[in-house]
């Protein structure tokens, strides 16, 4: 009697054989320095930075040209092998982590780091998708121009990842997120064809704006290999203030007043609670509170201009005087030099860093209409406290664009099981976000973390359109499968 293997085992063996054939073919395309397979070498590509997800892969591919990416995608499409595009792997939602079965390749563009061209007169820069964000900022600066995207991970995140997650950061209020900063894209489609929309035009009304499909798609529709980005005049005058306020409503009122008094010269407007300042001072050794006394809320605001005529200092001084007279603020400190300015920003940056010293945390990256922030934060905080009275809400963020990082720090006496509360708090917080017609993801993306929640809080019609676009551009579902779009129940 002959042995007949079980169907599942046979299919798995065929898939492994197919993958090995693909791997051999890819190696010949990218050359010996274009791939990694040793366990120690590929380990950093298999998990996201918080350690919540870990996968496996047959090969990490590191091409150097768009043509190599195209050939790799053609090979994988022909064999129906999944491809997981990956940038700097600094995301927080598991969107770049490969599946656990290992029957895939990770496509990392870290060796595609050319600044293709800079056109100062047109205020544009064209770059490879593997360029580190800080490199793009520096290239713009060398031509007396500004690329304004600013993130905590700018020393390691890549432009392709910034585009794929529609990154925002500290200066969205003035310059917009990556959608607004992008004029053109070069994208390799799932079948290997190269979509060249790499135009440096501000007006191009020739049908659908195809580049917008791939911005924020998290690598599920195509592999971004190049981008033409907008540049701006480089600020030569910057003034920064650290302000204490009595209420959250005062924060929003100060924002409105600031925008009216300063116009588009208001570059950043970050808000923080007293609890956030306390943990920064307590846990990070070089942090000092810029103001004496204590208040419930703080704002870090910054104005900038490409003209250095002293008007910003006068403008900010007048604004703060008006705010004080109106009872909106308690106190304010204005940076008189770059060192003081950096110290103020360090408080905001350290707030994020300090959370890990306070134990586990559950993080929400949501957005609501700006005017709803004073209602949303107390309501969400109270709802979470009713679930777990010892939880410590920590809400801060980019107030000017409605982006609230609504985090929950573990109780002081946490027994290590705080993470088990995540599904409960997800429902509590997301329901309130939905009530205010907000978004469950403001700038971090969907990935794996929020995929199923998207199925709850997006309408059926929106999900149908998303699935139709995915099916049209990736009919074999080989591009970052099982990310972003919820599994249909």
UniProtKB/TrEMBL annotation:
Cofactor(s) the protein requires to work: FAD
InterPro entries membership: FAD-bd_oxidored_4_C, FAD-bd_PCMH, FAD-bd_PCMH-like_sf, FAD-bd_PCMH_sub1, FAD-bd_PCMH_sub2, FAD-linked_Oxase-like_C, FAD-oxidored/transferase_4, Oxid_FAD_bind_N
Domain FAD-binding PCMH-type: start-end pairs: 53-234
Keywords: FAD, Flavoprotein
PROSITE patterns in the cross-refs: FAD_PCMH (PS51387)
Gene Ontology MF terms in the entry: catalytic activity; FAD binding
Alphabetized SUPFAM superfamilies for the sequence: FAD-binding/transporter-associated domain-like (SSF56176), FAD-linked oxidases, C-terminal domain (SSF55103)
Pfam families for this protein: FAD-oxidase_C, FAD_binding_4
Similarity comment text for this entry: Belongs to the FAD-binding oxidoreductase/transferase type 4 family.
Protein name stated in the entry: Hydroxyacid dehydrogenase
Protein source organism: Pollutimonas thiosulfatoxidans
Classification lineage: Bacteria, Pseudomonadati, Pseudomonadota, Betaproteobacteria, Burkholderiales
